[in-house]
């Protein structure tokens, strides 16, 4: 009887175990089905969301929405601009879509777009630079101009403003403070340094600007140029932060290259010369800083000029000047952060703009005698 009881107990346990196994299997099956359902629902929602994001915002809309794409804008800023103006539904989806389509090289300009346009139509418009509104006139700011020269050569001849009015605006302290709030990553306290001649020197980007108003304000013109500088500096923010450098440092360095060089390769090599000199505590000794310090154009400097005492002179001071000495183009900005690797410490240019580089002062003097003379 006792043995029979043990057998019954064993069978009962086996029955219970089988029952447990069946329950576990059911639970696993239910959990698996639930997970599959969740994945399916999530997948469907993701598919629906992406499909919705790829469709026009409003297929029936005929309202034209005007946007301005600043010079130097990248895909991130363009996608954000389109989303902010409700021309696309999701900036992230649009960026992935454009990258998947291998589209690039969007054109700056003023566009009239509608919410009924597809992503392909929007992309095609931005890629081809199809401008829907013709500018009333354009203003061209060449590379290498100072603020004074921008006023005299660009603002005064092309607008109703005088060079004096322009200079008064770019030196207005209250306006500078407003701009520093509007462009916090670009305009820092460095522009108010004790030895800085003009806070906005070097910050008005050289480019051709389209003007769509008959009587644009000075602030509109100035801020268009600042927008372009911001767009051209933004790609380098991460590099600058990593190296604990600032846009002011970058624009100051770039302005020296803009005034000294003619070709991209020369900019990169001259940048290497300046880096090499900074590394060994040699003065940069670049003539354009003396000319800027003296405040007058000179075709040739004399020995007495090199002794001119001013914070901007790189003959009487070590390191970079307190601020930019001119407006730098994109190639000069890029050359600062991507210089050639050389051991050159000297360079000079002949009357045709050809540069000659050397590692020793003796070689430098030889080039001077050969290409410059006395």
From TrEMBL:
Gene3D superfamilies the UniProt entry points to: Endolytic murein transglycosylase
Enzyme Commission number: 4.2.2.29
Catalytic activity, reaction form: a peptidoglycan chain = a peptidoglycan chain with N-acetyl-1,6-anhydromuramyl-[peptide] at the reducing end + a peptidoglycan chain with N-acetylglucosamine at the non-reducing end
One family name in Pfam for this protein: YceG
Keywords: Cell membrane, Cell wall biogenesis/degradation, Lyase, Membrane, Transmembrane, Transmembrane helix
Keyword Lyase (UniProt): yes
Residue(s) at site: Important for catalytic activity: 260
Enzyme class: lyase
NCBIfam families noted in UniProt: endolytic transglycosylase MltG
Function summary: Functions as a peptidoglycan terminase that cleaves nascent peptidoglycan strands endolytically to terminate their elongation.
Name of the protein in question: Endolytic murein transglycosylase
């Amino acid at each position: 009887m006792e043995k029979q009881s043990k057998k019954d107990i064993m069978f009962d346990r086996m029955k219970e175990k089988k029952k447990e196994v069946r329950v576990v299997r059911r639970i696993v099956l239910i959990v698996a089905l639930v997970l599959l359902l969740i994945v399916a629902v999530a997948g469907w929602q993701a598919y629906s969301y992406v499909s919705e994001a790829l469709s026009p915002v409003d297929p029936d809309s005929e309202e034209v929405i005007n946007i301005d794409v600043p010079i130097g804008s990248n895909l991130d800023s363009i996608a954000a601009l389109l989303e902010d103006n409700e021309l696309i539904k999701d900036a992230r989806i649009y960026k992935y879509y454009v990258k998947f389509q291998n589209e690039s090289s969007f054109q700056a300009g003023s566009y009239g777009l509608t919410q009924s346009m597809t992503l392909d139509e929007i992309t095609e418009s931005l890629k081809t630079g199809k401008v829907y509104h013709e500018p009333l006139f354009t203003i061209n700011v060449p590379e290498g101009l100072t603020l004074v020269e921008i006023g005299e050569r660009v603002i005064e001849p092309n607008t109703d403003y005088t060079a004096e009015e322009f200079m008064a605006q770019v030196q207005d302290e209250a306006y500078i403070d407003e701009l520093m709030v509007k462009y916090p990553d670009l305009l820092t306290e460095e522009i108010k340094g004790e030895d800085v001649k003009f806070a906005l020197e070097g910050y008005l980007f050289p480019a051709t600007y389209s003007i769509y108003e008959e009587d644009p304000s000075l602030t509109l013109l100035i801020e268009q140029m600042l927008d372009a500088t911001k767009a051209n500096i933004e790609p380098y923010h991460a590099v600058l932060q990593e190296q604990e450098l600032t846009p002011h440092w970058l624009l100051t360095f770039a302005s020296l290259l803009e005034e000294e060089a003619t070709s991209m390769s020369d900019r990169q090599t001259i940048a290497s010369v300046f880096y090499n000199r900074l590394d060994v505590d040699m003065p940069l000794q670049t003539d354009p800083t003396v000319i800027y310090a003296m405040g007058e154009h000179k075709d040739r400097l004399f020995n007495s000029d090199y002794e001119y005492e001013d914070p901007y002179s790189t003959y009487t001071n070590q390191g970079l000047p307190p601020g930019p000495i001119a407006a730098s183009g994109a190639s000069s900005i890029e050359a600062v952060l991507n210089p050639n690797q050389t051991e050159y410490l000297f360079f000079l240019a002949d009357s045709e703009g050809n540069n000659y580089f050397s590692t020793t002062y003796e070689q430098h003097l030889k080039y001077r005698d050969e290409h410059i003379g006395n």
